[in-house]
Please model this.
Amino acid sequence: MKNILVLFLLIASATALLAQNYAEAVKPMSQGEQNSFTIDFKIGDAETIADLWVGYQKDFKAKKPKLDKKANEYFADNAQVDKISSNTIDIYSKVARKSDNGAMLTIWFDLGGAYLSSARHPDRMPGAREWMAGFEQVVKAAFAKEALEAEEAVLKGLEKELKGLENDQQNAAKEVEKLMKELEDARQKVAGMDQAVGDMQKKIMDQQKVVEEAKTQLKRMKR
Model:
């Protein structure tokens, strides 16, 4: 029951991701203080989300995003995101761990001379939100799959336990069958012994009569 609840919570949390407004703020990064967008992931772990993020950007023809370990910042060069711009753009981003589950993904879109913002580029924001929502769907699918695999592993474990119980059940049934046979053999042996005891008692009684008769004859001879 607990595992099923965890599965539902993961899927519900993943679905809730799409309701975000993508918090917008000017934040410091390697190129100074620039306008950014933040996605608050409430499920998963930062490492997995970072890996998914790198793969997502590569799908848009960006060179493999490089991680500047010192700045803890990813840089994707010449990404082709038609929903945002007809020209290639550079994408800077950071993935930060949260104290609980999930991660904070902060993204800066360099359009070439200006960073994407709702104030300066309102016409591009629907496409940007759709593109970021696309990544949320990737995360949602990944962790829903992970939750499913976890539940399948639990099911596999239960099925293994059931097989073990069934084997124990069969062994116990065989043991009962063996004991029942031994009990029947013992009953037959007891019945045989009862017959033997009865026959022996009859022989003794017959012999006692013979002895008594012999005694009687001996007394008569002494008179």
In short: Residues 2-150 form a domain with the TATA-Binding Protein fold (CATH 3.30.310). The two ends are 102 Å apart (CA to CA). Strands lie at 23-29, 32-41, 66-68, 73-79, 89-97, 103-110.
